[in-house]
């Protein structure tokens, strides 16, 4: 066994323990895939990441992202959390205010603006309307009448999200889905907040299979939702979404559409620092 530096950070919240936790193992180049997966299974967090030396000169560091049961090519809150952990361990922001992360999905740019970090959302690999029978199934999972679903779209960017739009944030918060009916679906639900609210949209994420049932705050989902909502004129080019409310969290996701790119940002709060034997 070897001793490696280890941190846990809270992503999408400036208040500790109110966002989405991420475990980060530093200097993990000597670990095998099997060791990484086993440790991610042991932490039992939605994701655990491993920081490694980059393999291309354009990147500042490389990251591998694991859930308790599989490796992801990309995920949002692990991207921001890993960047913060890398910076806190001595990494340096480039002169243009960015950090470049290498992951299985390619190179991801991250803007650093004071305490706010934002990643450039990768392209959607599947972006199309959802078949009617699948929408019918989603209505049964969410336990809502079919006509309450205003629209639905595939928003695949690593995770296999299906975005579902409801009429209001109130309707999103009132959902009491049936986890047994979810199967392998990954459903992200969004609805607009009332005028004058602190945030413009309320978001919830429900994951099937071996993943976590309801994710507290989800960067990849919000990236896909932003591409969809801004692209269809439902959302303005810049807005803030809240997520995790039902779970007692205060997740805040900052969205900005800029020259065709979608930037997904939030605060990252360090919570735990130490070492781990692997």
UniProtKB/TrEMBL annotation:
It comes from the Bacteria. Pfam families: PhzC-PhzF. This is PhzF family phenazine biosynthesis protein.
